[in-house]
Amino acid sequence: MTVMLEIKDLHAAVNGKEVLKGINLTINAGEVHAVMGPNGSGKSTLSYVLAGRDGYDVTQGSVMYKGADLIALAPEIRAREGIFLAFQYPVEIPGVAGTTFLKTAYNAIRKHRGEKELDAMQFLKLIREKQKQLDMTDEMVRRAVNVGFSGGEKKRYEMLQMAMLEPALAILDETDSGLDIDALKTVADGINALRDPGRAMLMITHYQRLLDYVVPDFVHVLAGGKIVRSGDKSLALDLEKEGYAVLGTAAA
Amino acid sequence: MANVSESETIGAATTERYKYGFVTDIESDTAPKGLDESTVRFISAKKDEPDWLLQWRLKAFRQWLDKADEEPTWAKVNYPKIDYQDSYYYSAPKQQETLNSLDEVDPKLLETYNKLGIPLQEQMMLAGVAVDAVFDSVSVATTFKEELSKHGVIFCPISEAVQKHPELVKKYLGSVVPVADNFFATLNSAVFTDGSFVYVPEGVRCPMELSTYFRINAAQTGQFERTLIIADKGSYVSYLEGCTAPMRDEHQLHAAVVELIALDDAEIKYSTVQNWYPGDENGKGGIYNFVTKRGACRGRNSKISWTQVETGSAITWKYPSCILQGDNSVGEFYSIAITNNFQQADTGTKMIHMGKNTKSRIISKGISAGHAESTYRGLVKVMPGATGARNFTQCDSLLIGEKCGAHTVPYIEVRNKTAQVEHEATTSKISDDQLLYCRQRGLSAEDATTLIVNGFCRQVLQELPMEFAVEAQKLVGISLEGSVG
């Protein structure tokens, strides 16, 4: 089995304050892992550290991606190497059409891989196929990036980007937040459609709700900057019943 | 076209005879340094101008002397005092030193041309490489000229128009920007060297963008340019000035005057892309661009639309304006001003509403990076007779980094109770969240900045002629190079 991501004793600080305090996690290709945890446990910090956000500094430990050091790479190089982060709060980029944005990203990644860039027509054909699966219209895709989108539309646009960019490792940061049940199902269908033996996924979520629709292979509980419990999907159900309080002092 | 006008001018300069009683040596190709009455006479004689134009220039020169203390100081720009006697005001167009191939051209310049996607042949032209016979600019220009003359459109250097269409030049020159208008316009009136002249006859829709070969021509832009465009009743013309390619120029001071006249039901669309040398990253050198541009919507239902993309020059001082005299006339101003490093731009517009139901629209996008200072300065004036006048103004500023500045200075004067004037202004920064979002999708920080800035400018970019808009977008990116991490 191919190891996609190997995190060892990862410590990371945000603005000088240590948030991650020794995370160990290995994700193989084809696996879907869920990381759950209470607010402030370090879930989003983990996703930003993996994406390479400025100000999120690794102070100890290592992260290997496809067998190479990930931390040394700039955010855009990580992206081109196949890491995709679906943001919890996707930002607005006024005046930039969604299609233009995605085409620029798509071609940047293709170029990095030594593949030929797509022209406008080829790209449009491709995006039409993918947007249909996510129940998105041409109009929605052409609008300025995330401007005036509802919560559900933003998350669907994230999923469309993921489907187009075909990452090797997808990190989904609270993709279920702010979704009603119908939107949740659409988004979950989008995720499931991308499950693939060659692709790994890391789903970060506060609630177990999403996991009813996207069933993970492994569930980890993050508390106080460390993974305190790991198990299969039944762990998520236990947590749902008992609440994070059951973690007790471990969370502190 | 470039070749034609150059050789013609040289020809004219060497064969012209002494006509009007002045003392400067006509055989010399360059007027001596400094500016006095003989300089003005020299220029006029070089161009074999009729006496009325010489007198017009002289009047301007005397007024300029009277204005010696009136060099404008109200703009938010700083520069050392200009010594007007320490410049040359006329030199015959020089044969550019030609290079044998693109291999001899500064690689940095070529890199920029490539980023802009300028065709190879044009690159050679712009960089001063001897162009081979395949690209025959003369015949291209001739084809355009034939097409235009078929429709009765006059498009030629203003010096040629003075000779061939003196009645039009005499009638309209200085009718929008009077000789005494301002320090720089008065100076221009005295010593202007050349520029473009356009006349579109009644009812004619100009069959092409008057940019098509102007770009090729643009390498010869003079220091004191004078442009005059007249759209007769019911006509339409779109004119494009400038070039996205960076242009080297030995003159530091540029003081152009552009006058537009739109008669009944006529429309003029004037687009500018200005990318003159802005100085180096420490603020050394660069062009001072002090320009007076004004259009008169003289007729009923006429329309004048200014679109500008200003990325170059060390200092930009420029307020393309509309005088809305005709009832129901419309004035528009769409502007992008990008300043980086130590550039300074003080730019905006004036909309003077005189006729009934006149409308104006101002969309200004200022982008500052590095240590640059960008100011929007605009006047909306509604005269007592302008019943039902309307104006909408939107001024947006975008800051990149911590050391730049953006300023908005709107002046509003309303003397008619029925007028509606709206002003909106925003100032924003490119956020870390936006940059991360783009980079996480594979865009470099620079490409991300370009994309975000282009989005910010979209409302203005879409006003540019199609093919030019694409180049302008790339130019936005190039202008901001080095402004992010």
Write the layout of secondary structure elements.
The complex is a heterodimer of chains A (252) and B (485).
Chain A: E1 3-14, E2 17-28, E3 32-36, H1 43-51, E4 56-65, E5 68-69, H2 75-80, E6 83-86, E7 93-97, H3 98-112, H4 120-133, H5 138-142, E8 144-145, H6 151-165, E9 169-173, H7 181-193, E10 200-205, H8 209-213, E11 218-223, E12 226-231, H9 233-242
Parallel strand pairs in A: 3-10, 3-11, 6-9, 9-10
Antiparallel strand pairs in A: 1-2, 1-4, 4-5, 7-8, 11-12
Helix pairs in contact in A: 6-7
Chain B: H1 2-15, H2 37-46, H3 51-66, H4 107-116, H5 120-127, H6 137-150, E1 154-157, H7 158-164, H8 166-172, H9 183-191, E2 196-200, H10 214-217, E3 226-231, E4 236-242, E5 253-254, E6 257-262, E7 267-274, E8 288-297, E9 303-310, E10 315-318, E11 321-324, E12 330-339, E13 344-353, E14 359-369, E15 373-382, E16 390-400, E17 405-414, E18 420-429, H11 432-440, H12 445-456, H13 458-461, H14 466-479
Parallel strand pairs in B: 2-3, 3-6, 4-7, 5-8, 6-8, 7-9, 8-10, 8-11, 9-12, 10-13, 11-13, 12-14, 13-15, 14-16, 15-17, 16-18
Antiparallel strand pairs in B: 1-2
Helix pairs in contact in B: 2-3, 3-9, 7-8, 11-12, 12-14
The pLDDT mean of chain B sits at 82
Please provide the count of β strands of chain A: 12
* Class inferred from helices and paired strands of chain B: alpha/beta
| Most extensive interface | A-B, 32 and 23 residues
Assign an overall shape of chain B.
Answer: globular
Mean pLDDT of chain A: 91
The helix content of chain B, as a percent range, equals 25-40%
Number of domains of chain B: 1
- Biggest sheet layout of chain A: 6 strands, mixed
Helix content of chain A: 25-40%
Strand content of chain A: 25-35%
Q: What is CATH's topology name of chain A?
A: Rossmann fold
Basic shape of chain A:
globular
What would you call the quaternary organization?
heterodimer
